[in-house]
Amino acid sequence: MEQNIPVLTKPEAVIFDMDGTLFETDTLLRGVHENIFRTLREEGLYGETPPVERLLGCLGMLLDDIWLKVMPDASEAARDRANELLLQYEIEGLEAGEGRLYSGAEEALRQLKEQGVKLFVASNGLELYVKEVARLKGIAPLFEGLYSAGEYRTSSKVDLVALLLQEHGIGHAWMVGDRSSDVEAGRNNGLDVIGCAYADYGHSQELEGADALIRSLTELLPLLAAAQQA
């Protein structure tokens, strides 16, 4: 992060995206991707395996949109089956100990919580996946709530974050994420937006409009120290 620390409004809560923000998703998803398309071939639903980078580049999207990008020529039955297999192989991988949090993620979460900040996740992922990442990586107790599009059936992250804020009566929060959907969710809900510039899944222009950029989650701490009361 640059030496000049942006002065943000002190938050009641910090809302985190999961994939590409807290969880280094490719450490799990590369193997999952191979398993999905091997099974689809075995079941006669789809042919060759698309590049895994295509799937990684879609992280942050809703699932229906992901499969339209990853295999646009697939049948609806193949995309539905891919949804089922994604969750199955993700959970199997997590239970086997695959995947890891970004360096400094747990430390940053613990220090934020110790300073009285409420912590949340807002993800476009599936409910069980989001909750199992948090549980199996040991960070679930640090959060007030784990919100997912899969659980709340929201059509955008804007709506998911709005629901979170309403249910918990939060006046001001920070939105922390690596994709344009996170910037949009923060902006449209009147939040300060911190863009995670360390993930490789998106493109730099996705974070245009963020109030601050960080290279590690531990950089949230000096931002909090410099923040001003509303």
Summarize the structure.
This protein is an alpha/beta fold.
Structural class by secondary-structure content: alpha/beta
The CATH homologous superfamily of the largest domain? HAD superfamily/HAD-like
Q: Would you report the number of β strands?
A: 8
CATH fold-level label of the largest domain: Rossmann fold
How far is the first residue's CA from the last residue's CA? 24 Å
How much of the sequence lies in strands comes to: 5-15%
Q: Tally the helices.
A: 10
Number of domain units: 2
Q: Architecture of the largest domain, according to CATH?
A: 3-Layer(aba) Sandwich
Tell me the major beta sheet: 6 strands, parallel
Q: Which sequence of strands runs across the widest sheet? A: 5-4-1-6-7-8
Mean pLDDT score: 94
- What would you report as the Rg, rounded to the nearest angstrom? 18 Å
User: What is the C-level CATH assignment of the largest domain?
Assistant: Alpha Beta
Q: What level of helicity do the residues show? A: 40-55%
What coarse outline follows from CA principal-axis ratios? elongated
Organism: Paenibacillus protaetiae
GO molecular function: phosphoglycolate phosphatase activity
Protein name: HAD family hydrolase
Keywords: Hydrolase
